[in-house]
Amino acid sequence: MYSQEIPGELLKYFKDSHIALALADVTEDNPLLLVNEPFRTLTGYTDEEVIGRNCRLLQRDAENRQPRAKIRGFLEGGRQASVRTSIVNFRKDGKPFVNLLYMSKLKALSGEVRFLFASQFDVSRSQPELLSAYDAELGRTLAKLGPTLAESGMVIEGSLMTIANTVATVAQAKLTLADLDAPGFP
């Protein structure tokens, strides 16, 4: 069903990470292959409920027009190494949150994209210092991921430059949050 077997080093890395992570296959519709405990805590979903499904299940019927366009551009275009955007997601219990989504491609040394790597962070009600701590942890995560992937003959595409646009992304997230707080939003 899936195009690749997940290397053991990557499985261990996900298990040990303190931030929400997801790994998707690069086959049609990008089904999730792996999520970690922080992801399960953030979303309320179990592995059985998300593995094999596209992560868009978290969007439910939210419009998310601009974020979806950014994600689509990342997935369809071969030139974009990574993407970071805020997107309205829903926990299993139906509560909405603004997810600051980071996605990158994990490539074999041959250049073939093997997996899609993603990290999620709830910016809905967070203090700026929490976002700064998350950005620092994501930076450390990406720095540590490089050697882990190298053991499996892969590299992470993109760089921390995507993280550098946090101020604009958080401003976008705050506007989205204002929409969530509007009367009539679930």
TrEMBL record:
<dbReference type="Pfam" id="PF13426">
    <property type="entry name" value="PAS_9"/>
</dbReference>
<keyword id="KW-0288">FMN</keyword>
<feature type="domain" description="PAS">
    <location>
        <begin position="26"/>
        <end position="78"/>
    </location>
</feature>
<dbReference type="InterPro" id="IPR000014">
    <property type="entry name" value="PAS"/>
</dbReference>
<keyword id="KW-0285">Flavoprotein</keyword>
<keyword id="KW-0157">Chromophore</keyword>
<dbReference type="InterPro" id="IPR035965">
    <property type="entry name" value="PAS-like_dom_sf"/>
</dbReference>
<protein>
    <submittedName>
        <fullName>PAS domain-containing protein</fullName>
    </submittedName>
</protein>
